[in-house]
Amino acid sequence: MRDLVVDLFAGPGGWSHALHVLGVRDVGLEWDEWACKTRARAGQLTIRTDVAMYPAWPLVGRTRGFIASPPCQAWSMAGKRLGLLDQPLVHQAVADLAAGRDTRAKLLAACADPRSLLAAEPMRYLHALHQAGEPEWIAMEEVPDVLPLWRQYAVILRTWGFSVWTGILNAADYGVPQTRRRAILLASRSRTAEPPPPTHAQTAEPESLFGPGREQWVSMAEALGWGATDRPVPTVCAGGGPGGGPEPFPSGARKTLTDARDRGTWKPPSPRSALRRTRSRPSPAGTPACTCGNHPWAWSLRSNNQANATIRSVEEPAGTLFFGHRANECMWVAEPSAAPPAGQEPAPDPIRITAAEAGALQTFPANYPWAGTKGQQFSQIGNAVPPLLAAHLLAPHLGTTLNRSDFILAA
Questions:
Q1: Where are the domains of the chain?
Q2: What does the pLDDT read at residue 287?
């Protein structure tokens, strides 16, 4: 019976959580130890394996859906981007695998970054599955620079009888509180492949004769459940071990929760409710701020420590969240919302984003069971597909209409 959904490079479960909400289970192939532990805690089926070494034959004759999000470090703007130098080799690997020729060993030896060739691995599986008339549908995701590779996949898949769409989608257009742009490939043997209609826009659009309206992009404050007097809360650096470990990229700038409480500066925020909102929500009354003395401070999220870092007010969606090295440290920073009066105390210190906050901005449930040290958790979060975006992409293939309230309740 062909009812298996296979998820290559499954990570901590962005696609898997979306499928769970939609009433379907997948089996994920993943190598990272801590991502596998997170998936186990979340009740997701996982085969811990190297995707490049796992044979395709156990999946043949059983697979309905196929998902792949190859590692993007070699291609991403956040890394050294050696994958761009390897593009001709990756394209050659895809062409060879589509023809049933496995030249990976030779091509891998010529790659500047050994991870680059992982973007060709989905074609090895797809070629084997195609011999059995599988899968019924395909969904793949990567950083924008990989779009030319997805177009090569599309050319091949069309010769196999698939309808295929490729393009760049912005997660913010689908209710994710983050302007995360990704290259997407959607393919189907049974329906016309096309992107899901956006549900949100940078500026709210009313319903018209041409279709339903779109809500305004979801802000960080709204996604985190922050009100007009809420603000980030520092956390104590924990000891070593799977549940604690040092802060991922220590900078010495963060104050402990105890110090903050002693100063009487910080108030705990509202519980993280991860997109718990109504369709006809009122516009925010003002920028979430803390009042230190009599002076309000407006909070923004700085995406990294580099000079060109993206800095967004909490009344906007976050920029693309990515983690993995010290330069990618995400910090809440406070700026005066007006000229500070004479004698006003200085702005609060920057505060490092927590894993729970980062997960919520990726649309994972507030109680998602992340495994590993803080650094390992951040790495999983930054590499994951936002589940809400994944649900929009997958729902049409499953014959399901995504109900956002159902998605929230499932969290």
A1: 4-204+381-410, 218-361
A2: 43
The owner of tokens 């995360």 is 180
**Which of these, 21, 27, 51, 52, lies nearest to 40 by C-alpha position?**
27
Round to whole Å and give the CA distance between 184 and 181. 9
8 Å CB contact between 195 and 167: yes
The residues near 138 (Cβ < 8 Å, ≥ 6 apart) are: 65, 66, 67, 68, 126, 157, 162, 185, 186, 187, 188
pLDDT at site 327: 54
Q: Which residue has the tokens 């309740």?
A: 409
Q: Name the phi and psi angles at 69, rounded to 5.
A: -130, 80
What DSSP state is assigned to residue 165?
E
Q: Would you call the peptide bond into 135 cis, given omega within 30 degrees of 0 as the criterion?
A: yes
Position of tokens 């927590």?
354
> How far is residue 365's CA from residue 357's CA, in Å, rounded to a whole number?
10
- SS3 (DSSP) at 248: coil
Tell me which residues of the chain have a pLDDT lower than 50.
236-295, 409-411
State how far the Cα of 43 lies from the Cα of 13, in Å rounded to an integer: 10
What SS3 state is found at 305? Answer: coil
Q: Are 18 and 391 within 8 A, CB to CB?
A: yes
pLDDT (tens digit per residue) in 43-59 = 999 999 999 999 999 99
Contact, 174 vs 199, CB < 8 A?
yes
Q: Which CATH number fits domain 4-204+381-410: 1.20.120.160, 3.40.50.150, 2.60.40.10, 3.30.160.40?
A: 3.40.50.150
pTM, 2 dp:
0.84
Instruction: Reply yes or no: is the peptide bond before residue 284 cis, omega within 30 of 0.
Output: no
Q: Are 26 and 98 in contact (CB under 8 A)?
A: no
What is the helix (H) or strand (E) element at residue 31, kind and residue range? none
In whole angstroms, give the CA distance from residue 324 to residue 379: 6
Q: Which tokens hold the place of 403? A: 């109900």
Tokens of 90: 């990756």
CB atoms within 10 A of CB 182: 23
pLDDT digits (tens, 9 = 90+) for 167-225: 999 999 999 999 999 999 999 999 999 999 999 999 998 877 666 789 999 999 999 98
